[in-house]
């Protein structure tokens, strides 16, 4: 796999309404995002879900266009919300990732978004950002080695990319207090929430 089908996508909520300040709606969004990932529609490399917009780095499957992949995400989440009004603006912007440096630049942008909006001190401390420990992500496309850049360097991944990750199984049917506990890194002592287990990617 190479970077030729990996994109940085941005889409906003209808009239920039902060729907995803509500954790219930955020849970429903991620249920859709990971449902279609599980069906092989696309790979998910990085994301941040902000109250009124989404940034996402993904690779559509070889048989699927970028437009169709985004339609699965936006259409599926709109159906899950069952809102009386529109959830998303009809359009989205995209940028094809050129190389590792470009990937690192956009990964850093994603991780800085919660900081810029004063939602967290770092992307790794914002539970709706892929930098937060526990999210299941697909490896960056192409070879086994990556230069030291941005979030990968901070996470100690400037050597060979890992072949295994830890998965945090997010409980979509739970209270807000339960989901906050579930978002706690499972390897921290005293953390309650779903069991984390290694899986092949």
Strand content: 15-25%
Number of domains: 1
Largest sheet: 4 strands, antiparallel
Return the string of H and E elements. EHEEHEHHEHE
What fold name goes in the CATH topology slot? Answer: Alpha-Beta Plaits
Structural class: alpha+beta
- Beginning-to-end CA distance, first to last residue: 14 Å
What is the percent of helical residues? 25-40%
Q: Given this structure, which CATH class is correct?
A: Alpha Beta
The tally of beta strands, per DSSP, is 6
Unreliable residue runs: 143-201
The CATH H-level homologous superfamily: Transposase IS200-like
What does this structure look like?
It is built from 5 helices and 6 strands. Strands 2-3-1-4 form a 4-stranded antiparallel beta sheet, sandwiched between helices. A two-stranded antiparallel sheet has the order 5-6. It is globular and about 40 Å long. The two termini are 14 Å apart. Helix 1 packs across helix 2 (66-81). The chain has helices at residues 23-38, 66-81, 100-116, 150-154, 176-182; strands at residues 7-12, 42-49, 53-60, 93-96, 164-168, 196-200. Strand 2 and strand 3 form a beta hairpin. The protein is α+β, with helices and mostly antiparallel strands. It has a single domain (3-163), classed as Transposase IS200-like (Alpha-Beta Plaits, 2-Layer Sandwich).
List its salient traits:
201 residues; alpha+beta; Alpha-Beta Plaits; four-stranded antiparallel beta sheet; two-stranded antiparallel ribbon; 5 helices; 6 strands
